[in-house]
């Protein structure tokens, strides 16, 4: 039987705090979503000034990253590289800003961020994931 780590509310709170601190340090109004390894929501925070759609997009970026076990940017790169058929893949958003959360080399969840430029969303998400 295999064993793996799972995110508790303690880790989720730490991830959100680190991502929020990165966003606020740059004056970025974003939404931050944290999901488990199956893409199920564990937490969502929409900072003041972020458009409501940011909450939805951040969650989808996180879900994509968790299910795909990679940064959501990889899917964006595929589409931009000409593989437009990938746009029809179920449960996948091809937008940068979702990053997996790794513990001992295993994906235990993901962070998704939306609200600013794609690379800035990814910067905030990576700050959150690095909190562990």
UniProtKB/TrEMBL annotation:
Superkingdom of this protein's organism: Bacteria
State the Pfam families in the record.
HbpS-like (PF03928)
Alphabetical list of InterPro entries matching this protein: GlcG_carb_metab_protein, PduO/GlcC-like, PduO/GlcC-like_sf
Q: SUPFAM superfamilies, alphabetically?
A: GlcG-like
Q: Which Gene3D superfamilies match?
A: Haem-degrading domain
Q: What protein name is recorded for this chain? A: Glc operon protein GlcG
């Amino acid at each position: 039987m295999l064993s793996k780590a799972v995110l508790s509310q303690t880790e989720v709170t730490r991830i959100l705090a680190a991502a929020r601190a990165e966003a606020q340090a740059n004056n970025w109004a974003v939404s931050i979503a944290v999901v488990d390894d199956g893409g199920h929501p564990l937490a969502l925070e929409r900072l003041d000034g972020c458009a409501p759609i940011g909450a939805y997009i951040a969650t989808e970026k996180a879900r994509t990253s968790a299910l795909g076990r990679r940064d959501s940017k990889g899917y964006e790169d595929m589409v931009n590289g000409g593989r437009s058929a990938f746009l029809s893949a179920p449960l996948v958003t091809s937008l940068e800003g979702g990053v997996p959360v790794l513990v001992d080399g295993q994906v235990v969840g993901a962070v998704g961020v939306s609200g600013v430029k794609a690379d800035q969303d990814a910067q905030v998400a990576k700050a959150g994931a690095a909190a562990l």
